[in-house]
Amino acid sequence: MSSEGGSHWLSNKHIIVSGAGISGLAFAISLHKLWPTNVAPPSITLYERDPSAAPPGREGYSLSLRSDRPSAGIQTLQKMTMLDALLDVSISSLGSPSTPNRPESPEGGFVFWDKDFHPIVKLRSKTPPNLPISSMRISRASLRRTLVSTASSLPGVSIHWSSTITNAHPSPSGDIDVHLKDGTTAPCTLLLAADGSSSKLRTLLRPRDRLRFAGPTCIFGTAPLSLSPSPSPSEFGSVISGSGTALFVAPIDDSRLVWSLSWHSSVPSLPQKQPLSREESAALRTEAKTRGAAFGQRFADMLERTEEGSFARFNAQDKDGFAHAGNYVTAPEYVGLEGRVVFLGDANHAVSPFAGNGANLALMDGWDFAEALVGEREGLEGAVGRYDGLAVGRARKVVRMSRRSIRVMHSVGWRLMVYVMVLRVVKALFFQ
């Protein structure tokens, strides 16, 4: 922490965070690290709907943490002094010397395979100066557990599990009264919405700011890692059929992989998530087998050995971010909260899984808003302006990038050949 003296408008105040996901936890850890040692800090309470850091059925996938622009998840973790702890629980990393706890492969990175699982292009980011790695693959469960463990150990930080914020209103004292699902009310000076892409607070304050369908519908599940198209745990990526379907494959841990079969739909399908009945899981397995026929016997084997309790269906969705200015609270009954509620991570800007960047944006939002708050000692407005200047533009870039990825992965005919040539040029210019 800095030893810089003086006062701060948040000293001895209370910050409430809706959601103990990646952005909310990153904020709490970052604010504690950045706060001046001789200034009284605010207390932070996170309310989370999940019952624990890694609830069953919600953590069965892995994430990419990256250093290539506009991503800076690795750089952010280094600033948070969390990089080593997360490397120790990562699946793989690129750029560092190999150790038993940090497996690294010179052949690792993102791979585009053809329908016969032959590599088309391998993309591996260059390691930036002053960083030990360029990227890592980590299970969401490991990432969240590590962040929770760190945040929970900090003085003045508390996490309430199985607790949901249902509403919020200005109080007569000038603070915010936050209403919880158990009927109690908690006061705070600043309320952060970090409750994910289906944010309850965004629905209340910005009812017309909704997720939009990005085009693909996906069925996914988990299968043995031995069925991966790559022998290296450091490789993951997309299998392109050339007929409009795509298959994403990535390791979750040292024994399992997650696969996701996707195709373009004119309208979104009905989402299905666990727990599902045996009949519902069987129907998804059958549909995936039919839609993924172009991927041959290897995918048929994946389906055959997919855990029944892991099947699910979702629609890829996204939304651009927004700035906290110009009447950003659009619901008339909540205008009194304008300038007191700040949206972080997916609650502000949702990206589809095709972006491969949601966790990076969440980490960056948490750090950048904490840094802006510490730097603006007289009030919230300047801090929010600094944060918006960083967060909104980069999130829009990521949304555009994900839309391009969707086009590439589901392309057919001559478009696919053009995209492959472009990918090879991009690799030569920007990747190892």
From TrEMBL:
<dbReference type="Pfam" id="PF01494">
    <property type="entry name" value="FAD_binding_3"/>
</dbReference>
<keyword id="KW-0503">Monooxygenase</keyword>
<dbReference type="GO" id="GO:0071949">
    <property type="term" value="F:FAD binding"/>
</dbReference>
<keyword id="KW-0285">Flavoprotein</keyword>
<feature type="domain" description="FAD-binding">
    <location>
        <begin position="141"/>
        <end position="376"/>
    </location>
</feature>
<dbReference type="GO" id="GO:0004497">
    <property type="term" value="F:monooxygenase activity"/>
</dbReference>
<keyword id="KW-0274">FAD</keyword>
<protein>
    <submittedName>
        <fullName>Monooxygenase</fullName>
    </submittedName>
</protein>
<comment type="similarity">
    <text>Belongs to the paxM FAD-dependent monooxygenase family.</text>
</comment>
<dbReference type="InterPro" id="IPR050493">
    <property type="entry name" value="FAD-dep_Monooxygenase_BioMet"/>
</dbReference>
<keyword id="KW-0560">Oxidoreductase</keyword>
<dbReference type="InterPro" id="IPR002938">
    <property type="entry name" value="FAD-bd"/>
</dbReference>
<dbReference type="InterPro" id="IPR036188">
    <property type="entry name" value="FAD/NAD-bd_sf"/>
</dbReference>
